[in-house]
Amino acid sequence: MYVAVVCSVIFLSVLIPFLIIYNDSPTCFDGKRNNNEQGVDCGGNCAILCTPDLIKPIVLWERVFRVLPGVYNTVAYIENPNISAHVRRAQYIFKLYDADNILITEKIGTTFIPPKKTFGIFEGGIDTGERIPTRVTFEFTHDLVWEKDAGDNPEVFVDNALLSKTDTKPRIDARLTNTSLRPVSNVEAVAIIFDTEGVAIGASRTFVDYLEKNEVMNIVFTWPEPFETGLGFCQIPVDAMLVIDRSGSMDDDQINPPEPLTSVKRAAGSFLNRFEDRDQVGLVSFATNASHPADSFLTNDFDNLRKTIDAIFIHTDSVQSTNIKDGMEEAYLELASKRSQKDSSKIIVVLTDGIATHPQSALDKNYPEVSALEVGEKAKKVGIQIFSIGLGNMVNREFLKKLASNPNQYYFAPKRSAVDEIYKEIATSLCRKGATIITIIPRVYPSWAE
C-alpha cells in the first residue's frame, strides 16, 4: 500500500504538469492563433477583435471655444463607423496652439467609443493664462483595443432644444428621454452650437446621474458670455484680394516644382472653396514689383481664378526681391475700383516668406516696411480688413503684426504645410453671425467604462 501511494503521487506530479504544458486547451490569452481565431488572440470566439477588420475612428473636426478670458473648452467630433465594435478605454490628447503656432497647453483624457455613433469628446475649463489659443489638435495616443459589442446599448434622445439669452449669458433648455427598457446611469450630453454655415461656435456639457425607464428630464447648458461668432461668412457679400509673394526665396525649399510656392498656390486654391457666388476674390502676386494690372480682378469665376493662381511663377531672368508695398497698393486699388461691390465686406490677405526689401530709399533703410505700412493704414481707414501670413523663420513678425488690422489677424506658418489651415481659419473669421443650429449628443457611459 505504501509503495502504491508513493508511486501514485509521483505519477500525478509528473502527469499533471505534462498535460498542462503539452495539452492545454486554446484560449484567447495564450499568445497563439488557435481554435477559430482570425489573428493572435483576436476574432473568432474571442471578445477582442482583430484590428485589420476594423475602420479607425474618423475625427470629423476639432475646435477650441473661448468661455472666459484665459478659459477655453475644446471638442473633437468623432465618428465610429464600426457597427458592432466598441473600445472600453481610448486615451487621447488635445493640444492648444497660439497664433504663432506655439504650443500653449495639453489636455489628456480617457473615454469610451460606442459602436456606430457620432459623438463629441469634450474637455472644459482649460486654463491658458494670458495666451490665446487659435487652433487645437486632437488624436488618440495609444492603439485602440476593439471588442465585440453585444448590441444591448440603452437608447436615449434629446429634443425640444431652445437657445435663449444669446446677447448676455447664452442658455439652452432641452428635454432628455430614456427610451430604453431599463434604467440608465451616467448619461453625458454635449451641446454644440453651429452658425448658418455649419461652423461650430460654442460647446458645453452636462451629466445626468440616473434616468428611470421612459423617464423624461429637463437639462440645461449655460455659457457665461455671448458666443464669439466670428466663424463663417457674412450675410453681406465679401470682396477679397489675395496678395502672394513670388520672390526668389519662394523656391528655396525645392526648385522643381518650386516650394514653398507650389504649396501656397494649392492652399490659395482651396481657400476659394469657402466663398459663395455672391462673393468676389482677386489676385495680386509680387516680387521686385507687383503684377500690374492685377493677376486677376475681383471675380466670382473661381474655377478660372484657380487657373490664374496656379499660373504664378518665379521670374528667373533677374534677382527677385520682396516688394510688399507694391502688392498691397495693387490690392487696395482693386478694392477701391468699380468692380468692388458697394456694400461688401472688403479684405486683403497678404502672404510672404521674407523681409520687405523694396522699394528702397537712401534716406530711410526701413522704407520697404514703412511704405507697406502706410498703404496698410490707408486701407484700414476705408474699412478694409488686412490679414497677414508670415511663412518660415525669415519674416519680420512684428512688421507683419503691424500690417494686419490687429495682432490676432497675423498668422505665423512655420512650415508650408501650415498654410492651408491658416487660409481656412481666415476664411472662417470674416464676420460675425448668429447661432442658428443646435446639436445635442447624448452618450450613456456603460458600467465598465466608468
Summed up, what is this model?
With 450 residues, the protein is of the alpha+beta class. The protein has helices at residues 2-22, 261-271, 302-310, 324-335, 367-381, 397-403, 419-427; strands at residues 58-68, 71-80, 85-97, 103-113, 117-127, 135-140, 146-148, 156-164, 171-178, 184-195, 200-211, 216-222, 238-245, 280-286, 296-299, 345-352, 385-391, 410-413, 435-444.
Name the poorly predicted regions.
230-234
Structural class: alpha+beta
Compute the number of structural domains. 3
**Which percent range describes the beta-strand content?**
35-45%
Named CATH topology of the largest domain: Rossmann fold
Q: Biggest sheet: strands side by side, in what order?
A: 15-14-13-16-17-18
CATH class of the largest domain: Alpha Beta
